[in-house]
Amino acid sequence: MSKETIKGYRILTGYTQQDLANMFGVTKQAISQKERGVSRFSDKEMIVVRNLVREVIPNATIDDIFFSQKVNKSKSNQKKE
Fold this sequence. Notes:
Shape: globular
Number of strands: 0
CATH class: Mainly Alpha
Helix content: 55-70%
CATH topology: 434 Repressor (Amino-terminal Domain)
Strand content: under 5%
Radius of gyration: 15 Å
Distance between the termini: 28 Å
Low-confidence stretches: 71-81
Largest sheet: none
Number of helices: 6
Number of domains: 1
Structural class: mainly alpha
């Protein structure tokens, strides 16, 4: 997950970290840690975030939001020396 992806979707939907913290019953700092990848969103939290994003992007999926990091195949296929 890209740090900026989750934050970008949150901003796009017009929600603040505090808004999400209130929805999930956690602190604003906990949301910050989740957005930065320090801790992970629970499955239930992912569904809530997906539903919020769908208010703006109706066909958004959990994969789009949380697992859209691109892999550079040329680097992953190189042999280590």
